[in-house]
Amino acid sequence: MTVDLKKYPAIAEYAKKTAEPTWFTELRTKSLEKASSLELPSFEKIRYQRWPIQLEQPLEKKGSRKELIETLKPEQTGNMVVQLGQNTLELKISSEMQDQGVIVCDWQTALREHGDLVQKYFMQKAVKFDEDRLTAQHVAHLTSGLFIYVPKNVVLKEAFTSYFFQDATAKNDYVHHVIIVVGENSEFSYLENLKTVGEQATTANIIVEVVAQENSHVKFASVDRLGANTTTYLNRRGHLKKNAKIDWSMGMMNDGNIVGDFDSDLAGDGAHSEVKIVAISTGKQVQGIDTRVTNIGKHTIGHILQHGVILSRSTLTFNGIGHIIKGAKGADAQQESRVLMLSNKAKGDANPILLIDDNDVTAGHAASIGRVNQEQLYYLMSRGLPKKVAERLVIIGFLGPVLAAIPSKVIRAQLKATIERKLIDGQKDE
Amino acid sequence: MSTLEVKDLHVSIDGKNILKGVNLTMKTGEIHAIMGPNGTGKSTLSEAIMGHPAYKVTQGEVLLNGENILELPVDERARAGLFLAMQYPAEIPGVTNAEFIRGAINARRPEDKPLSVRSFLKQLDKTMSVLDMTEEMADRYLNEGFSGGEKKRNEILQLMMIKPKFAILDEIDSGLDIDALKVVSRGVNQMRGPEFGSLIITHYQRLLNYIVPDVVHVMMGGRIVKQGGPELAKRLEDEGYAGLRDELGLDIKLVDEEA
Ligand SMILES: Nc1ncnc2c1ncn2[C@@H]1O[C@H](COP(=O)(O)OP(=O)(O)OP(=O)(O)O)[C@@H](O)[C@H]1O
Ligand SMILES: [Mg+2]
């Protein structure tokens, strides 16, 4: 062993307790050593650097209170995982998945039982451990997560759902990692529910890596509801091989400050990424969303569609970055970012950024920042709908084009219900 | 029985005085028609009664069953029993027609007693067939991409589903083909009864053949200048407004008059 673990007693203790493989522990210490010399990532017009977003607590294995567990029973019963803080409460995998050799396990189990596979993909393809200070801190402090491996030629009909509850009943950092590898010619749908329980001020650092092998198709959907006192770095990254496709559908319904860094690298020829994001900011929160698609392979397609609504004194920034690398002949990069402001104190931004290093490509962008249409509100109210109800209808209508483009009907309905709830709560501050 | 009274109503828009003292009283069970030249303030009257924020009431009052409604926000006026079929209905993408109409009905019911989806749909189907509307219109987004005539039909659909006490219909006949005019009239006539009153703004006497009014008002220069029965509408159709104006000795310039 090259690193002296005595220098890092917390990591040594944690590694012993969880019996994680040596290569991973070494990566932790290497990351920790490197972190302080790395810069924080920077995103256009998103100033988060002074937030309590850096991970400072020593690595420690922690449980959650028993009585809390009882309150977290999702309606769904099969084909899902439920985690609270660092611990997995439930994991049920359909026979369809089991029969076809799909691996789904929590982070510690993945490291112990599928170490080679994890090592092959963990922060190798989609995100690099030393990319910036936050990714490095992530590796050093990582304590929970999920590993999903779909072998090649497996077409799964049923979606797999995860319920990740961040435990903010105590002041614990939440450092969480998800890897989804979908093999050649395989198809997989995944729905992630991220939610906070508790109200303590906490920091969350979450990285999701999706590796879509040749000719695979991944549908990734998420409904994020992190709490008002949780400061979050959320990085979701896709790495797409030849003719692979990822459909991202994300609902940013958080109540706290968050930086969302959502990227797709279209590495193989013909790779295709569709990114749909709806976001609602309320209260005093700041949500900064930086969505990038990089066209590397020839004839790759990257589309970004993001609509957001801002209430009260909150802030919402959408960056849309379409980056076409030299040599990506026939690539297509399109994006649309729209922001609707409901109050005079709301702050919104929609920044289209096209970086094009090849000539033989198509690219386009649309961006707008607007206010609620008063004629629409008047019309709805003239039929007896109270102002807030009318506002919600106009907002849902504004988000409609993104919602309609989400492939799954179930997720569309669920997202709509979450939007409704978040808006009702948010309107209380108006 | 309910009453709607407009008393000495003065309304301005962007600082320009449009209504200069309108008086009008109507009861449920009655149909009133308003006719008048372009730009004379008919839509202004209807928007002011409904409460459009751009129309400023500078004097006078509007009473529903004796209570002044001018202090009420738009939605409360609607729930108190007013309805305005607009000359130019707004389009709301992303909200389906059916979802919206159900919301409007439920806004009038106690929160814990919403209309069941089943009985709502039954009622909606029935009403849409009276109006010769295809089922597909229920699932389309509210007025989005509707043709002019479809929008008007949709206003009447809402009227029939919401069942207000008083409905103001602002040029409900404009842009309707002859068959549609009959269909829309059939809808309004079905609403007729002791609990429903309507104020119909129109330029064409033809509509009043289908929906026969009890009272016809003529509006010119921001005031109601004459009232009569259905025969008044016929006379205007034949003679135009200039004759009546000169008879009344009014100093008003009509839009289409040569200088
Ligand atoms: N937003 C506005 N800004 C300025 N003037 C306005 C505005 N809206 C209406 N007006 C003016 O108010 C006057 C009355 O308009 P109104 O729409 O009430 O007429 P109307 O009698 O309904 O006419 P029509 O028969 O053409 O529908 C017109 O001169 C019109 O130009
Ligand atoms: Mg008019």
Task: Report the total helices of chain A.
Answer: 10
* Tally of helical runs of chain B: 9
Principal-axis shape of chain A equals: globular
Rg over alpha carbons of chain A:
21 Å
In terms of quaternary structure, the protein is heterodimer
> CATH top level of chain B?
Alpha Beta
- Ligand roster: adenosine-5'-triphosphate, magnesium ion
* Poorly predicted sequence stretches spanning 5 or more consecutive residues of chain A: none
What's the total number of strands of chain B?
10
> Helices and strands of chain A: which structural class?
alpha/beta
Structure description:
The complex is a heterodimer of chains A (430) and B (259). Chain A has a domain at 1-205 and 218-235. The radius of gyration of chain A is 21 Å and the shape is globular. In chain A, the strands form two sheets. Chain A has a ten-stranded mixed β-sheet, covered by helices on one side. Chain A has 430 residues and is of the alpha/beta class. The longest helix of chain A has 19 residues, at 409-427. Chain A is built from ten helices and 19 strands. Chain A has helices spanning 9-18, 22-35, 66-70, 95-99, 107-113, 115-121, 133-141, 374-381, 387-404, 409-427; strands spanning 80-84, 87-92, 103-106, 144-150, 160-167, 174-182, 187-197, 202-212, 217-225, 230-240, 245-252, 258-266, 272-281, 286-295, 301-310, 315-324, 332-341, 347-356, 362-371. Chain B has a single domain (3-92, 164-257), classed as 3-Layer(aba) Sandwich (Rossmann fold), CATH 3.40.50. In chain B, the strands form two sheets. Chain B has a six-stranded mixed β-sheet with strand order 6-7-8-3-9-10, sandwiched between helices. Chain B has a four-stranded antiparallel β-sheet with strand order 2-1-4-5. Chain B is of the alpha/beta class and 259 residues long. Chain B has helices at 42-50, 74-80, 97-106, 117-130, 136-139, 148-162, 178-191, 205-210, 230-248; strands spanning 3-13, 16-27, 31-35, 55-64, 67-68, 82-85, 166-170, 197-201, 215-220, 223-228. Chain B has nine helices and ten strands. Chains A and B meet through helix 8 and helix 9 of A and helix 2 and helix 3 of B. Adenosine-5'-triphosphate binds at residues 13-14, 16, 18, 36, 38-44, 54, 87 of chain B.
